[in-house]
Design goal:
By secondary structure, the protein is mainly alpha-helical. Helix 5 packs antiparallel against helix 12 and helix 14 packs antiparallel against helix 15. The protein contains 15 helices and no strands. The protein has helices at 2-59, 64-69, 75-84, 91-103, 117-152, 157-171, 174-188, 213-219, 223-260, 263-270, 275-283, 288-304, 307-312, 318-328, 331-359.
């Protein structure tokens, strides 16, 4: 009796359970397929970037052996180090060995410091992250209002002035603006800090927790260090953010002009709504999703494009580390840095897609 009841129960439940599994799979299959498709495209992109960087590094006119042993070493030492570095093997074999090392989490040691590359990047990247974050804040706070104001006053004198300023900020060499800024605001007016992240008198006062000096000094409640860090970061962050300010201003103006020409704006104006409500609550609200793309991509560009600013201001960040590694011919550090830059841009694109789905329900389908 019990066996008969159990068999009947299974005969009813198992088909229902199986249908539930099939329905769930069919429901989530597009998302799963999209997720794994995205992962495969990311992996292929990174492998292609890795291969390109690796092979370019091997044909560069820089001898990594001499970078290790120096130009005064004898031939026997040179040959020994040459073989230890695996440079006597075919280039494709070197590449396969390097891929195998990466698969085990080994990015090699940096010639500049002698430490693992991952440790070096983890040490210097927070400084660049801090600099780029302040720069993108400048870009958002300044660029968006300028773009909106220019669009509202299209064709007027203020519109032309904002467009000229945007063109200037977008086309002027960053290193030149950096040097002029140091001469005027540091050497002449003495209203900002000089090179580095903090005054030498405060160097090492705050223990690194996040690696970002503004946050670490605030957590430690060391306001003297915090004030010094603010004075040092304002000028390089603002100059680094000039490109973002110009780009965000131009794109905001373009997006706003498109919205201000729509019929719903005319309808809102006919209804007698206040001008600021029409501009900010109606027109600006409809360009937020487009602005998210601009801001996230600009942020990625700032993270990898801080090389010149970090060189001019002696900012001990990721850009300066990459420049020093290139000059030294340290391909372990260069390849790892390029991979990080690729991951930054891929992450920014994925973040943009995610934000699109959050703010625009139409994209969720």
């Amino acid at each position: 009796m019990f066996a008969s009841t159990t068999g009947s129960f299974c005969a009813v439940v198992f088909p229902l359970f199986w249908r539930l599994i099939v329905f769930t799979f069919q429901l989530f299959r597009p998302k799963v397929k999209s997720f794994f498709g995205g992962l495969s495209s990311v992996a292929i992109t990174l492998l292609g970037l890795l291969a390109l960087t690796f092979f370019i590094g091997r044909v560069m006119p820089i001898d990594p052996v001499l970078s290790v042993i120096g130009p005064d070493a004898d031939n026997s030492t040179y040959e020994q180090v040459y073989q230890e570095m695996g440079l006597d093997k075919p280039i494709y074999v070197q590449y396969l060995y390097y891929i195998n090392d990466l698969a085990h989490g080994d990015f090699g040691n940096a010639l500049l410091t002698g430490r693992p590359v991952i440790e070096d990047i983890a040490r210097v990247f927070p400084a660049t992250l801090e600099l780029a974050t302040v720069a993108i804040i400048f870009g958002i706070v300044i660029g968006i209002p300028l773009g909106v104001y220019a669009a509202v006053n299209k064709g007027r004198v203020i519109d032309h002035i904002i467009r000229v300023i945007s063109l200037f900020g977008y086309s002027t060499p960053v290193f030149w603006v950096g040097m002029i800024g140091l001469i005027i605001f540091y050497a002449w007016l003495n209203v900002v800090g000089g090179s580095g992240r903090v005054d030498l008198a405060y160097d090492g006062f705050v223990d690194p927790v996040t690696g970002m000096l503004l946050i670490d000094s605030a957590l430690a409640k060391d306001w003297d260090v915090f004030q010094s860090a603010v004075k040092h970061i304002i000028l390089p962050a603002f100059i680094l953010g000039l490109n973002a300010v110009s780009f965000i201003t131009r794109m905001t103006r373009s997006f706003m002009l498109e919205q201000l020409s729509q019929e719903y704006i005319l309808t809102a104006q006919v209804k007698g709504l206040p001008k600021h409500v029409v501009i900010w609550r109606h027109a600006f609200r409809n360009i937020l999703v487009q602005l998210l793309t601009i801001i996230t991509l600009s942020y990625g560009s700032l993270l990898e494009g801080a090389v010149l600013i970090e060189t001019v201001f002696a900012w001990p960040g990721f850009g300066q580390y990459l420049t020093s590694s290139l000059l030294l011919g340290d391909m372990n550090a260069v390849v790892a840095s390029v991979l990080l830059i690729g991951l930054i841009f891929i992450s920014m694109n994925l973040l943009t897609d995610l934000l699109y789905q959050v703010f625009d329900p139409r994209t969720r389908k």
